[in-house]
Amino acid sequence: HHSNETILITGGAGFIGSNFIPHFLEKHPNTNVVNLDLLTYAGDIRNLKEVDNNPNYRFVNGDICDYVLVKKLFEEFNICGVINFAAESHVDNSISSPGQFIKTNIQGTFNLLEVARVLWNGKKNRFHHISTDEVYGSLGEEGFFTEESNYQPNSPYSASKASSDFLVRSYHHTYGMNVVTSNCSNNYGPKQHDEKLIPTIIRSAIKNAKIPIYGNGKNVRDWLFVKDHCEGITAIFNKGESGETYLLGGNNEFDNLTIASKICAILDIKRPKAKGSYKDQIEFVKDRLGHDFRYAIDASKISKELGWEASVAFELGLDETIEWYLNKYQL
Length: 331
Ligand code: NAD
Description:
Blueprint: E1 5-10, H1 15-27, E2 31-37, E3 57-61, H2 67-77, E4 79-84, H3 91-96, H4 99-120, E5 126-132, H5 156-175, E6 178-184, E7 186-188, H6 197-206, E8 211-214, E9 220-225, H7 226-239, E10 245-248, E11 253-255, H8 256-270, E12 282-285, H9 300-306, H10 314-328
Parallel strand pairs: 1-2, 1-4, 2-3, 4-5, 5-6, 6-10, 7-9, 8-12
Antiparallel strand pairs: 9-11
The structure holds nicotinamide-adenine-dinucleotide (NAD).
Residues 10-11, 13-17, 36-40, 42-43, 63-65, 85-87, 89, 104, 108, 130-132, 161, 184, 186-187, 193 line the site of nicotinamide-adenine-dinucleotide.
Keywords: Lyase, NAD
Cofactor: NAD(+)
Family: Belongs to the NAD(P)-dependent epimerase/dehydratase family. dTDP-glucose dehydratase subfamily.
């Protein structure tokens, strides 16, 4: 470590974090990154191959809930900034077993805040908390979430993220800590865990299996390409105003059935079936409990204040994503 500033990134072996770290290191050649990740089922160290040999990068296998470890890292590396990605992130898992969501998402965030509060001791180092638009609940056919929307979380996952957002907020209001929170819509792109919607559609299609779609397939999500998200996080970390929240969206609203159909249409061209279309494999399955109908984001604040806008066209992002999974699954 030859340069002078080190930030702590948590959950960097997950989907968004492992896209973010190479991006951040490239943009900040004079900043070191310590990546603290527990390598749960969701973390995959192979996603960080590109930075393995980067002298400014260090991996630490551990838990954000571990006060002694986090404190030791702050002291050893003189941590002067935090970006907190670490979380349990899969809504379905939060329905079947919510306990770990409370632990990692709430207690883990609290633990990071506490170490930062005690060790930074009034220094205005940045603490950036990564969160989700799901904290705002569900929209009807019309309207968008903004930074002013009410928190109305509906799943144990979104409730745990909402709680962590509130803790971060309180550390600004109470202790004057330099915090920013960003809440974004569904990300898609390379390195996402197999359990999530888009990888599941691609894998099922190619393996000639049923493509499972919840309920009637009409639930709407806004899709943000993960590399656009990474640019947005960098802008917020560097230039966002302390105490503020920024919403990021991709302006790509589609219902789940449309997403599946788009992927099938691309695969029909890339990997034509002997007979018929991959669409024939789509099957509706029992809906997720408490399934929010629609999420959509008005990202005009970050656009006006920080000049960020999603820039990757959905068709291009989806093509890159599909190529990455075809390669991963060796198909
Ligand atoms: P992910 O599940 O792919 O990755 C989470 C990472 O955190 C994994 O590497 C895991 O090993 C690690 N982790 C879990 N518990 C930990 C603990 N106790 N200590 C240390 N590390 C731990 O998640 P993701 O999709 O990359 O999401 C990252 C963040 O972005 C999360 O906070 C999530 O709530 C938020 N977010 C994600 C999306 C999305 O579409 N993926 C959208 C909005 C917000």
